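We read letters as residues; the fold follows as tokens. Both lines appear below.
***
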Amino acid sequence: MKQRTHQSLERGLRLVEAVAMNDAQTSLAEAARRTGLHRSTAHHLLQTLVSLGYLRQDADTRAYELAAKPFQITGRTWSPEQLAAIAQSSLAELTRRSGEGSSFSVYRDGAVTVVAKCEHDGPVRVVQDVGARRPLHCTAVAKAILPWLPAPELAGLLARMRFERHTPKTIVTRTAFEGALRRIRSTGYATDDEEHIEGIRCIAAPVFGHSGQVLGSLCTLGPKSRMTYEKLRKLRAPLGELARGMSERLGFNQ
């Protein structure tokens, strides 16, 4: 009995390692191949790990990814690649609801970078480049993150920030920008009303991790001819719902 318990523990840990080493989701077949386990044995152990909160099984793909518990135990956080994979289903749903392109950006060391995107099928769309850095003072994806940074970190960013003008609507003073951040924290979402690129509007909401730290933001954007002020208002609820859902997947409890 003791030997069987040790064997099950060893196999379970090998499966966790196999899933953790993969930036994307891991299928049952891939997990079994990587660990040398029979598919039925791997399936049973994977389901046990899901029930214990160490892994999560995607309802659509049936593949596996790390759940929040390993990060809560170790005090570590997800890599940008892992967050990009986790964000894909939320982005697909956001694009479906908005009829516009969507993206997920992460915050690391004073920079906000697009790590995942979902394009829509319309003839006119806004091109987004994965890996592109976004200006902190005039993009919704950055403004949706900054209000929830620790106060000393935010103060340091503001002290170093250059408020470069990109369009006539760009905020170019620290006083005005700090006022905007207070409003964003109060409402829970940020907009870019042609502040970065003329003719483009965007709305974004923050995504949080298990310890309450802000990790990034979900956004949807499009040309102002389609992204009207009325549409921006209507998108607040579904955007907030999807951002909260992704935060919950990352172990955040409000």
Summary: The chain has nine helices and eight strands. The first strand starts at residue 55 and ends at 57. The mean pLDDT is 88.
